[in-house]
Write a structure and sequence with these properties.
The protein is about 50% helix and about 15% strand. The chain has helices at about 15-20, 25-35, 50-65, and strands spanning about 10, 40, 45-50. The N and C termini lie far apart (about 40 Å).
Length: about 70
């Protein structure tokens, strides 16, 4: 199996920021705040984000925006 196949479903920092519609700085701040947990590429140690984690965060933000409070 190609090592890159194992990374399917993961996004690089720039891709993740674009996917959820925030800046790179915001994404990094969310890492520091614990809102997102980055994974590390085993080959180069770059940060990666699971697409499902990003989708979950987006859903939480939508709930907060629609209800006016976090659930």
């Amino acid at each position: 199996m190609n090592p890159e196949d194992k990374l399917n479903g993961y996004l690089k920092v720039g891709e993740a920021a674009k996917f959820i519609g925030v800046s790179l700085a915001t994404l990094r701040n969310w890492d520091k705040a614990g809102k997102l947990m980055p994974y590390r590429n085993p080959l180069n140690n770059y940060r990666l984000y699971k697409r499902v984690d990003l989708e979950k965060l987006l859903n939480e933000v939508k709930k907060t925006n629609s209800s006016g409070k976090a659930s």
